[in-house]
Specification:
Muramoyl-pentapeptide Carboxypeptidase, domain 1; 9 strands; 24% strand; 2 domains; 32% helix; five-stranded mixed β-sheet; elongated
């Protein structure tokens, strides 16, 4: 009886304890797949208030790729990390949830490995100082590139203090709401809107006789032509920090 050379080789290998090359490669491939899958399964979903080594790794990768605007990596998942993830999501045509799922973390690691940086090339940060004369500062990669007078909220309609990511942008929109005195406003065609806090708080353009003073019902108002410049630079996820301290210029 004749046997094929493949069968003969298999019998010989089996008798002396050698694994054929194609079987070894298949085993290695399977093991690698299982290892990768197992590693992926250990990645925790990260969101606001998460902390620890996984967050440090996330911040490091976001910083390497040019999305993370905070000067230090903290290991705490706050607004800056949330905003960086949102910017990454938007630039990859994903919903800006600000949640670092396993899929997001795997994609970031691949982008780091292949040196695929933020196509905008910058992490922006908006800082608003409420002390009169009120000013807005725009930072790019932690360097000041722009400053202008602005208006924030009047008594009874203060602009929220703190750091928050821009979560939605509109070229123009009708803005409605309630003034601190109890009357209602309905302003059509408000330009260059960048929402950063729930309840309708935004940086946007608005025509006023003067700027640098509390004038709004809670938003940060800019001259429309300046609001356009800011709008065109900053993506969703950009941090807006409203500070009650004095302006620095």
């Amino acid at each position: 009886m004749k046997i094929s050379s493949q069968i003969a080789a298999a019998i010989l290998c089996s008798s002396i304890g050698i694994i054929p090359l194609n079987s070894a490669l298949a085993a290695v491939t399977t093991t690698h797949h299982l290892t990768s899958t197992s590693k992926a399964r250990t990645l925790p979903t990260l969101n606001l208030s998460s902390h620890g080594k996984a967050v440090l790794t996330l911040q490091k990768e976001l910083q390497q790729l040019g999305y993370y605007a905070y000067p230090t990596k903290t290991g705490y998942y706050g607004a800056y990390t949330q905003g960086a993830v949102m910017t990454y999501q938007v630039l990859h045509q994903l919903a800006p949830t600000g949640i670092a799922t396993k899929a997001i973390q795997i994609a970031l690691a691949k982008d780091v490995a292949h040196h695929r940086r933020n196509p905008d090339g910058a992490a922006y940060h908006i800082v608003v100082k409420e002390t009169v004369p009120e000013r807005l500062y725009l930072y790019k990669n932690q360097r000041l590139i722009f400053t202008t007078l602005c208006n924030t909220g009047i008594a009874g309609g203060r602009t929220p203090i703190g750091s928050f990511p821009i979560y939605e942008k509109f070229v123009s929109q009708t803005m409605t709401g309630k003034n601190p005195n109890g009357t209602y406003y309905d302003d059509p065609g408000v330009p260059w809107i960048m929402y950063f806090y729930s309840g309708g708080y935004a940086v946007h353009g608005y025509v006023r006789r003067h700027y640098g003073f509390p004038e709004s019902a809670g938003c940060v108002e800019l001259p429309p032509y300046i609001a356009k410049q800011v709008y065109e630079k900053v993506p969703v996820g950009t941090i807006v920090t409203v500070d009650s301290g004095p302006a620095t210029a």
